[in-house]
Amino acid sequence: MTKKTIIEKIWEKHTVASEPGKPSLLYIDLHMVHEVTSPQAFEGLRLKGRKVRRPELTFATMDHNVPTVDRYVIKDEIAKKQMDTLSDNCRQFGVKVADLNSPDSGIVHVIGPELGLTQPGKTIVCGDSHTSTHGAFGALAFGIGTSEVEHVLSTQTLWQSKPKTLKVHVKGDLPLGVTAKDVILAIIAKFGVNFGTGSIIEFTGEAIRNMTMEERMTVCNMSIEAGAKAGLISPDETTFEYLRGRQYAPEGEEFEKAVEQWSALATDEGATYDRTVEIEASEIEPQVTWGTNPSQGIGINGVVPNPNDCENAADKIAIEQALDYMGLTPGTSISDVEVQHVFIGSCTNSRMSDLRAAAQVAKGRKVAPGVRAMVVPGSQKIKLQAEAEGLDQVFLEAGFEWRESGCSMCLSMNPDFVPEGERCASTSNRNFEGRQGKGARTHLVSPAMAAAAAVKGKFTDVRIFNEATVK
Ligand SMILES: CC(C)[C@H](C(=O)O)[C@@H](O)C(=O)O
Ligand code: SF4
Predict the structure, then answer these.
(1) Does 1 have pLDDT greater than 80?
(2) Residue 424 is assigned to a ligand binding site
C-alpha cells in the first residue's frame, strides 16, 4: 500500500469531484463564521433566494468587534451593525451562534476546539486566516474569503487546488523556559514569511509530540504567518484525551470508534512530502520580534540587526523600513528595549496554559511604572476557569487589567489599541504596521515573556525569573 501523509488522506476522503490539472471540489465538515467576514456572504444567499445547506455544520461567534470592558455597550456603529447583522442572519438561516450572552462565546479559533467541534480528519474553514489553528487536531483547516464563505454556506463544498506537502520537523527536546510560541517564531525567523507558500505544513518531531493541545494550537495558529495554506499535526493520545467529554465530541462507544478512525489518519511511517525543513529544538531561545513581519525576530539575547550587513538590496531596504517604523537602532540589545504596553491574549495565546504561564511570572510582582498591561482570555469559559483558579487576582494584584474575552488588542477593530509611537509586547501573531493601532509598535512574544516584560518594563529573558517553574 502506498504510504500517505495525513494531508493526502484527508484530501482524498473529502474530494467530491476532481479532474486532472483542475481544482477539486472538497466537502466541508465544519464551517466557523464570525461577524466581520460573513455579512456579504449571507446577503448573497438572500439575494439569490438560497438557504444554508447544512446549518448544523455551521457555527458562528462574535469576536473581532467585541469590547472587552462593558461588552454590551458597543459605541462603534460599524461594529454594532456587524454583530447585529450576524445575530439576524443566524436567526434567519438557522445557524447556531455563540453571541455575547452565550457562555460559549469567545474567539472563533479558541471556541471551536474548546467545544469539541474541532476534530481530527475534518475539513474546517472560516473566513479568517488563523483557521490554521484547528490543524493542531489533525484537521485540514484553512481560511477562506467572503465569496467562498457564501459558496460553503450554500453548498457545504469548496473548490480548492491541491497544495503541496511540507514537513517542518522540530528535532529533539525544547530547553526549559522555551515555549510553543518561541518554536513557531523561531521557525518563521529561520525560514521566512513565504516558505510555506502553496503548501500545507505538517509539524513533526519530539518537541511537537511532547506538546499539549494548547501548545500545538499556538504552533498551528501561526502557519499562515509562514505563508502556508494550513498547518497540522497528526493526532495522537494527547489529541484524543483533549477531546474526550467535550460538548460536541462523540460520546461513549461512538467516541471509541472515532478514536480508531482518527488514529488511522496519522501520517504513515515512511510517507514522503514535497519538501522537508528541520530546526533543532535545543537551539531555540525565547523569541522577540524587532520588525514589522513575524520573521523579523531574534532570541532574547540577540541584537537588532544592521541593514548594512545585508548582501541583498531588497532585504536591506526591508530592514531599514522596519527599523524606521519600529523606532529601533541597529545593534541595540533587544533586552534594552522598553515597552509601554503588554497584551496577553489573541487566538495564538489566550488559553488556560498561556494565562497560567503569565500568572506564574506575575505572581507576587508588580507591573513596572509606566507600563499598561492587560490580560484578555480567549473565551468566556477560559475567563471563568481562570477566575476559579484565582488567576484574575494574581494579575490584578500585580497591576494588570483583567478583561472579558475577544480579539481585543490583537488588531484594533474594537476599543483596545496601542497609541501611536508606543511599544507593545504582545502575545498575538502579527506585528504588521498599524496592526495594534495607527503607528503602534508591536513585538511578538510568548505569554511568559510578555509577563516578564510587564514587570521589568523592558524585554527580559523570562528564564532568570523562575528557572524551575516556568515551562
Ligand atoms: C478580520 C479577519 C478577516 C482577519 C483574518 O483573516 O485573519 C483577522 O482575524 C486577522 O487576524 O487579521
Ligand atoms: S485574535 Fe487576532 S488573529 Fe485571532 S482571529 Fe482575532 S484578530 Fe485574528
Answers:
(1) no
(2) no
Domains 8-275 and 288-464 in one fold: yes
β partners of residue 280:
171
Q: What's the CA gap between 192 and 297, in Å, rounded?
A: 10
Which residues fall within 8 angstroms of residue 203, CB to CB, at 6 or more apart? 168, 170, 216, 219, 220, 231, 232, 233
Residue in 83, 64, 118, 125 with CA at minimum distance from that of residue 405: 64
Q: Which atom of ligand 2 is nearest to the CA of 410?
A: 2
The domain ranges of the chain are: 8-275, 288-464
- State whether CATH 3.30.499.10 applies to domain 288-464: yes
CATH topology of domain 8-275: Aconitase; domain 3 (3.30.499)
- Does the predicted model carry a pTM greater than 0.95? yes
Distance 329 CA to ligand 1 centre (A): 31
**Would the CB of 416 count as within 6 Å of ligand 2?**
no
pLDDT tens track for 142-166: 999 999 999 999 999 999 999 999 9
Please report the DSSP string for 215-284 in residue order. Answer: HHHHHHHGGGGGTBSEEE----HHHHHHHTT-TTS--HHHHHHHHHHHHHHSPPTT---SEEEEEEGGG-
The answer, yes or no, to whether residue 469 has pLDDT greater than 90, is: no
Q: Give distance in angstroms: CA of 470 to centre of ligand 1.
A: 31
CA-closest residue to ligand 2 atom 4: 347
Q: How many CB atoms lie within 10 A of CB 176?
A: 11
Is the pLDDT score of 471 beyond 90? no
**Residue 275, strand partner residues:** 166
- Gap from CA of 111 to ligand 2 centroid (Å): 12
Query: 212-232: per-residue pLDDT in tens?
Result: 999 999 999 999 999 999 999
Average pLDDT score, the chain:
97
Name the residue of 33, 130, 224 whose CB sits within 8 Å of the most ligand 1 atoms, as the mutation to test its pocket. 130
The number of beta carbons lying within 10 Å of the beta carbon of residue 87 is: 15
All cell numbers assigned to 253? 462507544
CA separation for the pair 330, 315 (Å, rounded): 14
DSSP state of 23: P
| Binding site membership of 63 for ligand 1 (Cβ less than 6 Å) | no
Task: Among the bound ligands, name the one nearest to the CA of residue 222.
Answer: 2
Q: Please check the confidence at residue 349 and state whether its pLDDT lies above 90.
A: yes
Q: Cα(109) to centroid of ligand 2, in Å?
A: 8
At 360-392, the pLDDT tens digits run 999 999 999 999 999 999 999 999 999 999 999
Whether residue 130 has its Cβ less than 6 Å from ligand 2? yes
Closest atom of ligand 2 relative to the 108 alpha carbon: 5
Question: Is 410 labelled as part of a ligand binding site?
Answer: yes
